[in-house]
Amino acid sequence: LEGDEGADRAERAQGYKKILAHLPFHLNCPRVPTQKGSPLLMHTFSVSFCPSTFSNAAPCSTNFTSPGGYIETPQQARSRYNTDVDCTYTVTVYMGYGVEIQVMNVSLAEGDVVRFEDLAGREPSVLANESILLKGLVVRSWSNQISIHFRSRQPQSSSLLLRYQAFVLSCNFPDRPAYGDVSVTSLHAGGEAYFYCFNGYQLQGPSTLTCRNATTPYWSGKVPRCLVACGGMVKNATLGRIVSPGFPGNYSNNLTCHWVLEAPEGQRLHVHFEKVALAEDDDRSVPVNSLSGRYYTLISHLMFKETVGEAQSVSSQCIAIRYEAFAAGHCYEPFVKYGNFTTTDSTYAVGTVMEFTCDPGYPLEQGSVIIECMDPSNPQWNETEPACRAVCSGEITDSAGVVLSPNWPEAYDKGQDCIWGIHVEEDKRIMLDIQVLHMGKNDLLTFYDGDDLTAKILGQYSGSRPRFKLYTSMADVTIQFQSDPATNIYGYNNGFVVHFFEVPRNDTCSELPEISNGWKTTSHPDLVHGTLVTYQCYPGFEVVGTEMLMCQWDLTWSGDLPSCERVLSCPDPGTVEHSRRVMSGPRLIVGSTVQYICNKGYSLSGNSLLSCYHRDSTGPKWSEKLPKCIPDSYEPCRNPGTPPYTIQSSEKHVYQAGETVRFSCMSGYELQGEPVLRCVPRHPSKWSHPPPLCKGRLCVLQCS
């Protein structure tokens, strides 16, 4: 106001005060006594920033609880002034739901800070920050609460528009127990996981876990384990397996295990030794020639098995025995590990002829390829069934196949020197797909680009490596494996698995075959690099595997050939609000049912029982639509009244069943009784408690 005089000075000062009244500042001015008509003097004043003086600005930090909406920052009223902005927005949805945030628009100035955090744990977890913030970015929380922190020194040149919505959270897929498996009805809250063990193993822990609703959904317990029991009694033994504790690893020391098998009445038992590896001097098995019993007779002299382990550490010691019951007048069903067979009679009556084959990589050893069930008085096979075993060395002329380390999947022996030769047509080449390579560091696997050990080396490997591929320039390849004579390798799946394929030598990928119950479409007729082949299935079938394959630079396809498998189960029909469901089994196969039962206070609308059926080519479907659970109608509660000195949160004449009313006291009075009353649905409905009372507090005044 310097330079202003008289009334003009006073008028100008009043105008400045009106302008400053609308700015986010406090004016602290000393009072100066003046006489009427004298000029207004303002000696000093101080200015302090005060964001709360905005009369038209929305709060900077806000909590959002709706299932969806928009967040804009900074607010227009705040960003029109050149002041710092530091805002935190919190979005909270119902338990069992997460928050999905999509960046609709973003414009940040240098130095701006934006941080998205999940608030479920003890400490917030950062989900994203300004370094990756782009339009269209989607951020999902792990729990039902997320926060957005925005800080800017230049809010007038910054803007951020977000859209949020709730989505259903789910439990992680549970781990599969070793030597077992798991099936899951749903990963959402209420879904169940069912666990079971393979033959020879017993489940330790809960067989069923439930996905529980929480801030972050979780399974109701720990994943069970599949363990081997030391001995036991098996009644009505039809088909199964006995393995030593710790199988396929070594059994422990100082064990005495007894197994007794009891076949159904009138049937006999066949025992097949898959593997018996005992310490030479310290462990023993005790066979028993016969056991008298009500329900079984024996074909094998070994019915009672005892395994004794002394206190000496040995390697690769384990037992695996397969048992099977069969009817009188028939032969037992043969068993070939790593192989299969065809038969002329599935009941294995006298005269049945069987032919055996081995899985790829397992040549057929010992025994006969074809056997026959003979002797009506005492039926038995005329030859022992053969064995399929991964061997050391071999000559292979097939167009595709597998080369396995000796004894795979069991450990190979020390001091081995094995050579395999693979030969294809002269105008073809060989692609080697080394899917497993897990050997000792002193063991050696060598690939030669030719038909002998003098050819160029394609690669030489030891130890462990992830999956990789090699390509020959010749029509032959030689594989040599040498194991260290001084080192033992223990355990399953130690060794190598090499798949080989005959491939063309030109600049195109090999022709892909058609698939059953489906068809393929090709983007280019010549299958050159970049060609896409898409597989699709007929109605009622679904693609298993990768449906789209691409011809890569190395002239191989980007994935394995898919297949079309019939859809044998219905999709999960889902849950009905305010109800529970009862399933006929753990899997929703054709013929299974799902029944919905409404909670107390709700009535069913629609069919309660849904059946999975398959009548046409479209695949399995549910017989009915999902029902609904509708709340029952109850008489309302009348207003409970307002005792003296009490205050009702909402005064209404009547309250519907399930509604609540809250009481509080006037100042100076203390509430005695239940503060919240609920209208309990009945016929007639009534309040859960009598209204509370408010009594005066005892006050003590101290006078100085």
TrEMBL record:
Q: Which Pfam families match?
A: CUB, Sushi
Listed PROSITE patterns: CUB, SUSHI
The record's keywords, sorted A to Z, are: Disulfide bond, Repeat, Sushi
Any S-S bridges, and between which cysteines? 230-257, 537-564
InterPro entries for the chain: CUB_dom, SEZ6_CSMD_C4BPB_Regulators, Sperma_CUB_dom_sf, Sushi/SCR/CCP_sf, Sushi_SCR_CCP_dom
Using the record's annotation, list all stretches that form the CUB domain: 230-274, 392-503
- Organism superkingdom: Eukaryota
- Residues in Sushi domain copies: 169-228, 329-390, 507-566, 568-631, 635-696
The record's CDD domains line, in alphabetical order, gives:
CCP (cd00033), CUB (cd00041)
Q: What is this protein called?
A: Seizure related 6 homolog b
Please name the taxonomic classification of the source. Eukaryota, Metazoa, Chordata, Craniata, Vertebrata
